[in-house]
Amino acid sequence: AQRVTQPEKLLSVFKGAPVELKCNYSYSGSPELFWYVQYSRQRLQLLLRHISRESIKGFTADLNKGETSFHLKKPFAQEEDSAMYYCALSAGGTSYGKLTFGQGTILTVHP
Amino acid sequence: KAGVTQTPRYLIKTRGQQVTLSCSPISGHRSVSWYQQTPGQGLQFLFEYFSETQRNKGNFPGRFSGRQFSNSRSEMNVSTLELGDSALYLCASRDGGNTIYFGEGSWLTVV
Predict the structure, then answer these.
(1) Cα–Cα distance between B29 and B93 in angstroms, integer?
(2) Exposed/middle/buried for B67, CB within 10 Å: 0-12, 13-18, 19+?
(3) A40 by DSSP, 3-state: which?
(4) Which of B31, B43, B94 to mutate to test the interface with A (most CBs of A within 10 A)?
(5) Pairing assessment for the beta strands B10-13 and B106-110 based on DSSP bridges
(6) Residue A96 pLDDT exceeds 80
(7) Are B81 and B100 in contact (CB under 8 A)?
(8) Which of B96 and B9 is assigned the larger pLDDT?
(9) Of B44, B48, B102, the CB nearest to A97
(10) Which of B48, B50, B102 sits opposite A44 (nearest CB)?
(11) Has residue B5 got a pLDDT over 80?
């Protein structure tokens, strides 16, 4: 069975401070990991995926298979980063369309 | 390109009734999946359709069903509605690169 855990329901930081949103997963195979973001009054949208290995809006995430983690990081948070963030897992293959989501973390960046 | 479109956006139904929700994927996308979002359970996968065939199914009772048409448009149906079915129902479509795009959702309230 697949499981994604985001231990922090709420996370508050000040503008310019580093931010790290934690995500741990359990899956016996080789998963594909994603971070989705939902800004206020907007639809859920993909932020980044581990296979792309790219930085989006200053965010990066590294898949650590040993620790089964996929934490999202940004060195200097901005107020516009305030949103709900979801970590998600896909088993890949014919299960690409099936995402298992964590409970989400609400990030608030204070001025 | 137009995004994933869901109708209706809001609806209120009575216990015991049934409801049909509609989803139009992004043009060219052949995979459509459905998710239920509630405050208590978060985002949960319902099912995925690809080229009119159900490819994956989540852990929901048989009252939840779906289908996909030859133009990739999809519908989901919930029969014998229960109060606990009140939720935001999200539709998503997937492109050839396995990026998933979400609609704005249909808010269902069961009274």
Answers:
(1) 6
(2) middle
(3) coil
(4) B43
(5) parallel
(6) no
(7) no
(8) B9
(9) B48
(10) B102
(11) yes
